[in-house]
Write a structure and sequence with these properties.
disordered N terminus, single chain, seven-stranded mixed beta sheet, alpha/beta, about 300 residues, Metallo-beta-lactamase, Chain A, 14 strands
């Protein structure tokens, strides 16, 4: 019996895990619901371990501490969930963002195993739509062997986002420790340059799933609106924290490339969500990241829905 390199590494990793832990770690089951003509699954890619100071470094210290405490975050690091959205639209199986893959953080990169645990093969994904080019959304494009993780997929990226990461000013506004984001984005995008379709605000991915502009977190960040019922928005990283993004939309997370633009985007999106009572899926909100936005005095709050 012969083993190819992928199966050998998979078997070795499984044995190492069993040896270290004594038992296999259970996969996180997707959260599923129907929305209009679409079947929606929110699939965990794990979580990121991030410094709490990066959430709002310029905020008043006491106010920031109170906001973090209300979110159950009192240490120097917090766990930021990473929630990928999978949409079945007729014969299409559309993945919104590809997660971190094997080369970013050990706590993330769990998307494919969580899909396969419920019988969704990587080969079944027909489209992958990237809201933006940060590692936790893009680097899962490839697997641990640097092969395309979803070999039969077509790819969709924002034209403005693609141009930003390939432009001469891509590192402008990024902390020095994140310079590798540019290298990683260019390396990842190079793998799909012959398979990618560029879109802009107002374009449809398929009928009923439309791109709209939520720039600021990155220069070309977009979100998706899905028709049916009161509507559904897959927000990417437009709103990233269950308390700060809603109660303090004017605070500046370190991850925003264009802070002032991001603030304006948050305020506009929050007002729309609160007015229309549209359901939101947030990539970094507590799994499964689904809920609605309610007004709370002069600001807002996130009300989770299961």
């Amino acid at each position: 019996m012969s083993l190819d390199r992928r199966h050998f590494l998979a078997a070795s990793a499984s044995l190492a895990t069993l040896s270290a832990l004594g038992t296999a770690r259970a996969a996180t089951a997707p959260h599923r619901f129907t929305h209009g003509a679409f079947e929606i699954s929110v699939v965990s890619d794990g979580y990121l371990a991030l410094p709490t100071a990066a959430l709002a470094g310029d905020a008043p210290a006491e106010a920031r501490a109170a906001a973090l405490k209300s979110a159950g975050q009192t240490g120097e690091q917090y766990q930021s969930p990473t929630n990928c959205t999978l949409i079945r639209a007729g014969r299409e199986l559309i993945l919104i963002d590809a997660g971190s893959g094997a080369h970013f953080m050990p706590s993330a990169g769990k998307l494919t195993e969580n899909l396969e645990a419920v019988g969704i093969a990587r080969e079944a994904i027909t489209q992958i739509v990237f809201t933006h080019g940060h590692p936790d959304h893009l680097w899962g494009l490839v697997d641990e062997l640097d092969d395309l993780a979803f070999p039969n997929a077509r790819y969709v990226a924002g034209a403005a986002e693609w141009d930003f990461w390939h432009g001469a000013n891509a590192e402008r506004g990024l902390p020095s420790e994140r310079a590798g984001f540019v290298t990683g984005a260019r390396r990842s995008f190079a793998r799909i340059k012959d398979k990618v379709t560029m879109v802009k605000a107002g374009d449809d991915i398929v009928p009923g799933i439309r791109v709209f502009d939520t720039r600021g977190h990155t220069q070309g960040h977009f979100s998706l609106e899905i028709t049916g019922g009161d509507g559904l928005i897959v927000g990417g990283d437009a709103l990233t924290h269950p308390v700060i993004s809603f109660a303090h939309p004017d605070w500046r997370p370190a991850s925003d490339h264009e802070p002032e633009v991001a603030i304006a985007t948050r305020r506009k999106l929050l007002e729309r969500l609160a007015t229309d009572r549209t359901r939101l899926i947030g990539f970094h909100l507590p799994f499964p990241g689904t809920g609605i936005v309610e007004r709370n005095g002069t600001a807002y709050r996130f009300a989770a829905l299961s």
